[in-house]
Design a protein that fits this description.
By secondary structure, the chain is α+β, with helices and mostly antiparallel strands. It has one domain: Glutaredoxin (3-Layer(aba) Sandwich), CATH 3.40.30.10. The chain contains four helices and six strands; from the N terminus they run E-E-E-H-E-H-H-E-E-H. The chain has a four-stranded mixed beta sheet, covered by helices on one side. Strand 1 and strand 2 form a beta hairpin.
Length: about 160
């Protein structure tokens, strides 16, 4: 089973076929609307717009596990993201990324180490996983700005040829 064989729904509740990302680079990010890092939505949207024509997408994954900072309904989340940050990238259903209820997608992702060699639980909102077309994964912690040079360089290196 690959990362893209995982079942997950869209924010609207319909099935999301992760195989749409086959052969592409995708940045998977657990997001929240009421967090000090919420302004990262702007940088994520700019990355999505800048590279979407080159085989890249951001995938936002709402999560309410950190300080209950994503309490909204799907409609509230969608409206907040589009109104405040102009988000056009896909958003999934709200899931758990840690603990007994951890979604299978994050069961796979949390095994990936960051630059310091640390794997395991998600630390906070806006933890980022860059999945390359060959399904190699790089992990960037929440404090990494979406437009930080190390993340932008990793995205450019992961873009399909």
């Amino acid at each position: 089973m690959t990362l893209y064989d995982t079942d997950i729904a869209t924010l609207d509740g319909g099935p999301l076929d992760l195989h749409q990302f086959d052969g592409k680079a995708v940045l998977i990010v657990n997001v929240a609307s009421k967090c000090g890092l919420t302004p990262q939505y702007s940088g994520l949207e700019r990355l999505h717009e800048q590279y979407k024509g080159r085989g890249f997408s951001v995938l936002g994954v709402p999560c309410n596990q950190f300080g209950e900072q994503e309490p909204g309904t799907p409609d509230e989340i969608k409206t907040f993201c589009s109104t405040n940050y102009g988000v056009t990238f896909p958003l999934t259903e709200k899931i758990e990324v840690n603990g007994e209820g951890r979604h299978p997608l994050y069961s796979q992702l949390t095994g990936v180490s960051d630059a310091e060699g640390e794997a395991g639980d998600i630390q906070w909102n806006f933890e980022k996983f860059l999945v390359s077309p060959d399904l190699a994964v790089r992990r960037f912690r929440p404090g990494t700005d979406p437009e930080a040079p190390e993340l932008v360089e990793a995205i450019e290196a992961a873009l399909p040829a």
